[in-house]
Amino acid sequence: MTVNPPRAVPVPTPPSRGETRRRSPRLATTSGVMTYALIALAVLLPVPYMLQLPGPVFNTLGDYRDKPMISISGAKTYPTDGEIDMLTVAVSGGPGRDTFASQALGALLHGHETVIPTEAYYPLDTTREDVAASNAVEMSSSQDVAVAAAMGQLGKSYTVHLLVDEVVSGSPAEGELRKGDRIMSVNGKKLDSDPDAAQKLSEAVKSSDSVDLVVERGGKNVDVSLKPATVEGRKAIGINMKQDFEFPVDVSFNVEGIGGPSAGTMFALAIVDELTPGAMAGGKHVAGTGEIDPAGNVGPIGGARQKVAAATAQGATLFMSPADNCAEVLKAADQSKITVARIDTLADAQNAVEKYAVGDTADIPKCPADGADPNEKGQ
Predict the structure, then answer these.
(1) Can you state the angle between helices 128-154 and 264-274, rounded to 10 degrees?
(2) Per-residue pLDDT for 21 more than 80?
(3) Considering the entire predicted model, what is its pTM?
(4) How many angstroms separate the CA atoms of 323 and 299, rounded?
(5) Integer Cα distance of 90 and 147 in angstroms
(6) Local structure of residue 305 (DSSP, 8 states)
(7) Where would a tag sit more exposed on the chain, N or C end, judged by fewer CB atoms within 10 A?
(8) What is the crossing angle of helices 346-357 and 264-274, to 10°?
(9) Mean of the pLDDT values across residues 135-153?
(10) Measured distance CA(107)–CA(53) in Å, rounded
(11) What secondary structure letter does DSSP report for 294?
(12) Gap between the Cα atoms of 183 and 215, Å rounded
């Protein structure tokens, strides 16, 4: 076996006393430029995340762009006093817009912003126009449902019709149903004017091998028979539906440029306030959020952390939170500045505002403390 002798490695001669070794000015300059370039690249690098931030706040009892946010005709209305704020979330990034690494890092360090993966909310092929259209549809639907919930709270009757809103290409309904068809019955059971028509139609599709519909089209009744297809393990006939309401009063909303479904509960409260004697808020400044259904049930929303922050910054002293958002709201709220009430229904929200208006906060349902049963109202 042959062993090669070790290679001699030159050892630099240390500087003599009083002598200072200097880096090449060119090397130092190049290194500094590269460092700053890398930092700039990291700061300006787009990342696939969206940021949720506290958005604008709107008083549903007030004006928006110099016009009333809510206008009611066809019934006597009464003066209101105070503010019932609807809250929004501003979104940075998402389809068609970039979020930079520096923004995402800053949001993680800031208490009232949330960083979420874009793909968790939107498919990869979603465009900015798709998002705007979806938000507009949700806002329009929330307005109709808010009026329905308010009518129910006031004991006023109304009718609702179930319409075909969209026919899915390649589905059993293609060529048989049309957009605008009014669904009168399914398998011999009347659906028209039934508030639960959509649910009953869905149940009929799931449980039947054949679905026999009667639809009104152009003033005539048309019989349609469909065989549901199985899509991803579920039966479907391939339509999207919408509800068309007929109310005893006319309610118009001035909300151009505002989207999403979460204003429904505050809209409904404002309508109830305007249609009943006395000022519900009693001059107080309250705010809240929550999606609502025609029966007045309040559901959870996104961006609760941002909304309670916006409400507090705007000066509201009562925040109404859907039950399922309680934990997030309590964690984010400065409870020395704002009282947090839990609401499960529109009746809960009205009760909370009326009690708060007269200073009776002890009986307002509160969000449960950590560890409490989320299905029980804490006090």
Answers:
(1) 40
(2) no
(3) 0.74
(4) 8
(5) 26
(6) H
(7) N
(8) 60
(9) 85
(10) 9
(11) T
(12) 4
